[in-house]
Amino acid sequence: MACLIKPLVLLPLSFWVYSTFLHDLWHTQNSSLTASIIGGCRGGYEGSSARSGWWEVASENSGVLAMHMFIFPNTDKAIMFDGIVFGKSQIQLPPTRILGRKIKTDADLWAHAVEFDIESAAIRPLKILTDTWASAGGLSANGTFVLSGGWSDGRRTLRYLSGCGTCDWKEFPGALAGKRWYSSQQILPDGSFIVVGGRQMFDYEYIPNNGVSSKKNYLLPFLHETSDLEENNLYPFVFLSTDGNLFIFANNRSILLNPTINKIIREFPILPGGSRNYPSSAMSVLLPIKLHDPNPNVIKAEVLICGGAKREAANLASKGIFVDALKDCGRIDITNPSATWQKVMMPSPRVMGDMLLLPTGDVLMINGAKKGIAGWDFADDPNMTPVLYKLDNPKAQQFTELTATTIPRMCHSTSVVLPDGKILVAGSNPNYNYNFTDVKYPTELRVEKFYPPYLDPLLVLDRPFIISNFRGKTVNYGQNFVIEFKLKKLEVSLVHLKVTMYAPPFTTHGFSMGQRLLELAIEKLINVGPEIFQVSVMAPPTAAIAPPSYYLVFVVHSGVPSPGVWLQIR
């Protein structure tokens, strides 16, 4: 408890109340969360302000470089992988899993994907036969992960991975119609996926929900128009709007595509300032969708894009000259036909960072650099300070800088939100053959956890704990359902309560695909026992609002989220 006592010695009365509660909580079913809060001290809580968050090193060696990362529902597992092209990794395949792989060199005996236990940091090697470098992916309606494209023999490959403890990748080379390298993938209301773009691929295709490719490409001249000498339209930002249309942003332009009739129905104003997609690599999210109005004419959907690089940055970086990344953000209502970009400035420039939606509805910006562009040795000056963006605050109060890490997270770093509200951070700079020496930014295999400010131990009295268990159950669209939760309060006001539903993303190359957060409509809140409450909420009305899949549900009280529980909607 020493790390908790140190920041509280000036608050003896508060500490007495708090420590008494912790002692009580330690002997309850929620003791694991308390232990994890205290455990955060190992990574730098002591001596730093928990109000700005803190860090811990969760693992010294992830086995492979986490260039791509996602989490599985109803497990404590994250999947991390890079690509076969990077040579000998740090974890070897078991002999039984080498079967089927073409053994050309010693490097082919090593894994390039692992299952990472987010609690114990144990890793299990997974076998991939085709190259997954710069692939795209997403979680399907039934919880299977679907991965498309990659490099070399992986460009037209579809892969599937289920979340069981012994499952491994199933690969289908040649299943895609196009060669998808640096493309983006988004789940659609019917449970199928669209895969957009890729290197020299100015089209898109659909992956039906039965997993069999349609073998058809749909031309999208917009992607050709937004390409340039540096190809600043790779990994386009693709989001499913609340009306079922697709927002697609490439370079500095954006459109609304109707996937039912395969036609562009709207073009948005240019976002000025520079280029925003790989390799200029800005960050982007679809902002939280609020479902409070039971009969809205239009359910608002907004997109936020921050950072990126100036048009001349790539050419200069190739000469070893690194110019400042962009510092601005653009925000636009994609459901408003006459909307324009609204600009705001971040505290510092950032390129190839990650942008995550937190359970509270706030936005976290993390990883990346302050100068240059994405790519090997094309950036400098790591941006090690996370930034919190509170979208509903006045402009002057929207950004807050948080506690910095000590580990540079440059090109090919990743991050994901965990069910307990922490942030898993991994990867950076995959030098060929996992080079750890004689380079400015060596291959990075350490895995960190960042504790956002809402995990401050002083806020534990405001932290709800969901009692309801939705494992094996599904919720239908528009259905009312009840969440029972515990909270150390005599009473709870609706003013201080909200319920959010989060679709965790597949994160790679600075883009978190499929990420989505909904703020559900609350129907009723009642007290059903000592410090036990039930909140009745309405599920999203349509699959355009929330595509069928697994979501994490959080109860948020006074800005402090509960640990999430998994729920399937269909």
At a glance:
Residues 1-19 form the signal peptide. The protein is built from 6 helices and 43 strands. It has 570 residues and is mostly beta strands.
What does this protein structure show overall?
The structure is a single chain. The chain is mainly beta and 570 residues long. It has six helices and 43 strands. The longest helix has 15 residues, at 12-26.
SSE diagram, text form:
Blueprint lengths: L1 H4 L6 H15 L4 H9 L14 E6 L8 E4 L5 E5 L13 H4 L14 E5 L5 E4 L9 E4 L5 E4 L9 E4 L8 E3 L11 E4 L5 E4 L6 E5 L10 E2 L1 H5 L11 E4 L5 E5 L2 E6 L4 E5 L15 E4 L2 E2 L11 E5 L6 H5 L10 E6 L8 E4 L8 E4 L5 E4 L2 E4 L6 E4 L4 E3 L9 E3 L11 E5 L5 E5 L19 E5 L13 E2 L7 E2 L4 E7 L10 E7 L2 E3 L2 E3 L2 E4 L1 E9 L2 E7 L10 E9 L2 E2 L3 E5 L1
Parallel strand pairs: 19-38, 33-43
Antiparallel strand pairs: 1-31, 2-3, 2-36, 3-4, 4-5, 6-7, 7-8, 8-9, 10-11, 11-12, 12-13, 14-15, 15-16, 16-17, 18-20, 20-21, 21-22, 23-24, 24-27, 25-26, 27-28, 29-30, 30-31, 32-34, 34-40, 35-38, 35-41, 36-37, 39-40, 41-42, 41-43
